[in-house]
Amino acid sequence: MFTWKRLIVALCVLVVALEAFTTLILPGIVKNKAEQWVADNTDRTLEIGRVSISPVTLAVEISQLSLSEKDRPDRFLSWQKLRVSLSARSIYHLAPVLREIRLVKPFVHIERLDAATFNFSDLVPEPAEQAATETEDEPARFSLNNIVIENGQLDLVDHSLDGEISHTIRDLNLAIPFFGNLPYLVDEPVQPLFSAVINDSPVEMKGKLTPFADAREFSLNLALNDIDLPYYLAYLPVELPIELHNGRLGFDLQLLYRASMAQQPEFLISGEVNLTALNVWDRQGEQLFFLPLLRAVIAPSKPLEQDIQLASLDLYNLEVNVSRDRNGEWNHARLKMAKADTGTEETAPAEDATETAFKLAVNQFRLRDAILFFRDELPTGGFKTTVREVMVDVKNFSLDPHTAIPITASLATDYDEQVSLHGHMGLTPFFVDIEIQANHLPLSVYQPYYQEQVAIKPGGQLDLQARVSVSPEAPLEILDGQVDLQSLDLPFTPKEGFRLGQMAITGLSYSLAENLLNLEKLQLDRGDLRFSRNARGQWSFVSPDYPVLAGLTEADHAPVDAPAAEPSEGPPFSYRVGEVAVSDWSVDFLDRQPAEKARLQLSGIQSSVKNLAAPEKVASPFDLKATLYRTGQIPLSGDATIASQEF
């Protein structure tokens, strides 16, 4: 017969039985199962002195644990006591909320056997196993409180180097009041602390816990100087595609963690990071770059929310080596790390998956007095130059969409070239709108890149100025362009050739979307053309020195049935030229092919042609004046239409 009294007695008996099972029987089962699993799945031995489970306080305690090395009884990991206390609020949050994590006298012995193998490598899952367990879910939710490590020890022995090197950490004590991303306040938080004796050098950092009525925050100052990066980078379990010959790291950081019962916890970091004497080489024994000094000033940032704010980022005297070999491979392209073959196909994230956007803002970026050493072995004869005095200023850099970022830059080269630019750019969507100016560009220096057209090094110097714009709406636009070419010299023979005092282009613009080139005016001043034809009918300008001209003459004899070029995508090329003006030209032509050689001499040539366009046919008014043999005058004027406008 059912009675409330019997129900209450049954429930009490059940509770007592569950507590007795959890307290007296379950710890032994957990201990035996853990030791057996390690024995069956690894070549190690696990020994546990005692397991204690309290269903009342929701605490688990594991005492006198020891894990052996692989295939030998030496101790790899041990501790005297580990206590983990769970909070009942874990049920409310459906996520782990731990009131206490206390580890007493932990010991870890690490051995580096070779460059990428450690004595714990057998415990690290294979890449395929890691890929199988990765998901696209939201970040884990948790709250860890009163994290304490007492009297910890760590031994690191490196067998991979020429001489065995040992590192030790003794008397490690760590206390963190709280950490996580769930709103929770522990009743009696510990005071933040870090202290240890690292390689016989004591280190101690104490923080400050500030309690408020409905919130708590603790701050910690973390400062280290002169960290030898190559020394510690060698302990990464992966092989890098670079060799770090030198580099020193120092930082002075302020850590602030704030938690409350009503809001999500906040973790703020600020301070300064310095990187000095960074010397990076590739695996082929070539230096990639050398950075004497990098200084980053971190404004209050929230790394847990992927929100990083830099007040300033400064690089001083950076030296970069860029090269391309004869196979066309760039030295920096060799730095790609090989991806592990997981045997699984990459899957696209679900359409409804949410991802926290990474936020990065840099109030001021400055690059000062950088040097670029450039070497290109791909063109015949090779090309090299040194770019010096590189200055770059970027303000208010941000990854936020629709942000215009001001940028200015300037540089000089060993050939007395000067380049400067200023304008704006953005990343989302990507756009560039800059004004660029380049002065004193010598044509002869870049001859390796157009030697298939001109095999000799021509004389001349080029100045350029334009506004360049790139955006999703307009893939490429060049506006307000100006070109000034001085002292062009193209010799045919020791006494013949073409010289041009100045070529000036004003009002240059080009639209890639329309494939349209516009020139307001093309001015050609002080031209001098001297050429001849010998008795065999060979022109003096048709020579191996000018393959492009030889190709033009050969085109006259091309077969009629030559295949037509495939039509290009987009609109056909078109151009409009407001005026082409020729001033103070002279022409001297000597023809030795006739029985009696003939000579044509023109001087004082002045000409103007307006309104040139293609592919549409338009009437172009022109006028021409020249002096023939110093006395005769040739005046011409009228309208002309270009007969063939194929491109």
The biggest beta sheet is recorded as: 20 strands, mixed
Residue stretches low in confidence (pLDDT < 50, at least 5 long) are 350-354
- The number of distinct β-strands equals 30
Rg to the nearest angstrom? 38 Å
Give me the secondary-structure category: mainly beta
Shape verdict: elongated
Count helical runs.
5
Distance between the termini: 104 Å
Mean pLDDT metric: 86
The amount of beta strand, in percent, is: over 45%
Helicity level: under 10%
Which terms summarize this structure?
mainly beta, 647 residues, 5 helices, 20-stranded mixed sheet
Please give a structural write-up.
There is one protein chain. The chain has helices at 4-41, 89-93, 127-133, 229-233, 547-555; strands at residues 46-54, 59-69, 72-86, 97-104, 107-114, 117-118, 143-158, 165-180, 193-198, 201-206, 208-211, 215-228, 242-260, 266-282, 287-301, 307-316, 319-324, 359-376, 383-398, 405-413, 418-427, 430-442, 459-470, 477-491, 497-511, 516-533, 574-591, 598-614, 620-628, 632-640. With 647 residues, the chain is mainly beta.
Helix-strand layout with pairing:
Layout (H helix, E strand, L loop, with lengths): L3 H38 L4 E9 L4 E11 L2 E15 L2 H5 L3 E8 L2 E8 L2 E2 L8 H7 L9 E16 L6 E16 L12 E6 L2 E6 L1 E4 L3 E14 H5 L8 E19 L5 E17 L4 E15 L5 E10 L2 E6 L34 E18 L6 E16 L6 E9 L4 E10 L2 E13 L16 E12 L6 E15 L5 E15 L4 E18 L13 H9 L18 E18 L6 E17 L5 E9 L3 E9 L7
Parallel strand pairs: 4-7, 5-7, 16-18, 17-18, 26-27
Antiparallel strand pairs: 1-2, 2-3, 3-4, 3-5, 5-6, 7-8, 8-9, 9-10, 11-12, 12-13, 13-14, 14-15, 15-16, 15-17, 18-19, 19-20, 20-21, 21-22, 22-23, 23-24, 24-25, 25-26, 27-28, 28-29, 29-30
